[in-house]
Amino acid sequence: xxxxxxxxxxxxxxxxxxxxxxxxxxxxxxxxxxxxxxxxxxxxxxxxxxxxxxxxxxxxxxxxxxxxxxxxxxxxxxxxxxxxxxxxxxxxxxxxxxxxxxxxxxxxxxxxxxxxxxxxxxxxxxxxxxxxxxxxxxxxxxxxxxxxxxxxxxxxxxxxxxxxxxxxxxxxxxxxxxxxxxxxxxxxxxxxxxxxxxxxxxxxxxxxxxxxxxxxxxxxxxxxxxxxxxxxxxxxxxxxxxxxx
Length: 245
Ligand code: NAD
Prior knowledge:
By secondary structure, the protein is of the alpha/beta class. It is built from nine helices and seven strands.
């Protein structure tokens, strides 16, 4: 799967799954523009990609509307157009529903769902001009099955699934495919705070018996963005070791 001459935009590429997605595309020849808020972490992503000259970082917050236009413009300049958008940026603000603050609800919806909407809206015109436009949204298995203590996060990720299907139908006539990847329990900074007991409890529920890696997710994102995946749209692909069947 060569991505020579392909321009990719990844949100939240400064660490974790996003960093692995950037490296997977760059390793296959793509020009990749990625976003995030931490310039130091961005430099580490660029260095880890193996081809810094094909990486470009745009600092910003996906929940701010002006940032979406700026990121798309940068990707078009860097890659000579835009072929693939990966909406990966996401946050958690966990807590039980009865104690969940308005702010924790709004922040999670703002980044995970509204951010995905804003980036997609900003990128759509450019993706329609590409001979192989692709959108891959990173949701979560909890958006399918629910999770106590994550009403905000779960609602945002379920929203991303509905959004994916609606936009897939809207853009199908222009040969732009829109799919979602639903990671299960992946070892990143986001899940590092869970504690050993909670992690062991979760691991016991994974049929394949191990936590996932960022690379496990990145490889599926790359496949859905490839030319051979051109007949797949509106789908949600779990990458979860079998948690959801
Ligand atoms: P992470 O916290 O390690 O990294 C998140 C990335 O998003 C970082 O680069 C961060 O800078 C960026 N980001 C956060 N808020 C942003 C904002 N407002 N604007 C721009 N960038 C922002 O998380 P991760 O584990 O790598 O998760 C990546 C995606 O995968 C998220 O959407 C997450 O919800 C999803 N996911 C993760 C897991 C898991 O187990 N780690 C499971 C299911 C889904």
